[in-house]
Amino acid sequence: MRLRLGMLASHGGTNVQSVVQACGESRLAAEPALIISNNRDSAVLEFGRSRGVPSIWIGGAAYQDEAVRDHAICAELSSHNVDLVLLLGYMRKLGPATLACFRNRILNIHPALLPKHGGKGNYGIHVHQSVLASGDTETGVSIHLVDAEYDQGPVIAQCRVCVLRGDTPATLQARVLAREHEFLVETLNRIVAGSIPGMAELYGAANLGRSRPSGRPTSATSL
Question: Which domains are delineated in the chain?
């Protein structure tokens, strides 16, 4: 049984695209089960639909209430039998229902070496501005479990990227993002293989499909 992935992104979703392409090219033994965005016109939803991946907008006036949005996200992930949730440029916090239902099954990718340059406000270009302002000679990519606080969950994988003389936030961001695309697929393959300490019991190849959440809250509307 393949690992079923639920992916949340707010805008372009280039990491989502990398994962979907890797699955389609058999470079990753997983299945894109669902894409969710909080932006109705986001490129990631257009991409997902073009690839035949269920792609859902959960945003706008109907989901301004955080609890309503939380239960809708949880419902869609559950109804699509998602094994592992990936936050790939999703610009909102997940709510308590989703965090509880998918405890230890939600990963975020962050473009720096956590715990450095993490926390509220450290996203996108702001992360790379922080790295350069600090004088750090290296940065990288962190993949971590998600909890109720920004960038505080345990890191399960990291890789390093050199900061080059003359780097600007934009050049550094581009180089780190290119490595994100590769490293995310590499890490997911390690999860599938059961080779990441602490993750094998939940996601090892022999255990796929045994730990899916059973809750089925009211479902959101697919657009």
Answer: 1-103 (3.40.50.170), 108-201 (3.40.50.170)
